[in-house]
Design a protein that fits this description.
The chain is mainly alpha-helical and about 200 residues long. It has helices at about 10-25, 40-55, 60-80, 85-100, 110-115, 125-135, 145-160, 160-165, 170-185, 200. The protein is globular. About 30% of the residues are buried. It comes from Ornithodoros erraticus.
């Protein structure tokens, strides 16, 4: 979720506690095969890179991408899918995530999303896949991501600068946020981190 601005340190701590509760309820380690006829880790990583490009082209919030990848991994942990369906699953997760994170007017019509993403699936196929994903995930799409925790930890660092990093200026700590976010983006395509809780990745 996009983090609110102007929160106090106590409010951020409460938010972290909420995220940790969600993490305990829904997070499970995800493992992809290195070979075989199921979706491989390399194929999953290519799908993540593809979604990253789409997210950038649409100028969506990074939270949309992180939620989409989380939904993708959670779904593929529950379902044995064939590689030919991976792009359909990925774009469906992305579309679901965009409807949760983005403002309504920013979310393109599904037909436009198909065109802009060069996705070779029909509207009906993606809508059918959306329904399957929702059912498998019990309609629970509000998952906690590593980016949620990063925003909280960075906010706490800025709010408690005088105690934690007194030698750093507020401007220096503010500038650290985008840098950490960029590094976290790289982690999205690191399969070894799929067995790591989002709260620990940061």
């Amino acid at each position: 979720m996009v983090m609110q601005k102007g929160l106090t340190a106590d409010e951020v701590v409460t938010l972290v506690q909420q995220y940790l509760r969600k993490e305990r309820q829904s997070w499970r380690p995800c493992k992809y095969s290195a070979q075989g006829d199921e979706i491989l880790s390399a194929q999953r990583n290519q799908a993540v890179k593809w979604l990253t490009v789409i997210n950038r082209c649409l100028r969506f919030n990074p939270e949309t991408l992180f939620l989409a990848v989380t939904l993708l991994d959670d779904f593929l942990r529950l379902v044995r899918a064939r590689p030919k369906y991976l792009k359909c699953i990925a774009i469906s997760c992305f579309y679901l995530a965009s409807k949760i994170v983005e403002e309504d007017e920013m979310v393109p019509h599904i037909k436009d999303l198909i065109t802009n993403s060069n996705c070779n699936f029909s509207v009906s196929e993606i809508m059918r896949m959306e329904a399957i994903i929702l059912k498998k995930l019990n309609w629970n799409l509000c998952r906690t991501t590593a980016l949620d925790f990063l925003h909280c930890f960075h906010a706490l660092l800025v709010l408690n600068r005088s105690l934690l990093l007194p030698d750093q200026s507020a401007a220096q700590l503010e500038a650290l946020g985008p840098l950490l976010e960029t590094k976290l983006h790289i982690c999205l395509s690191q399969p070894e981190l799929l067995a790591t809780r989002p709260s620990v990745v940061d």
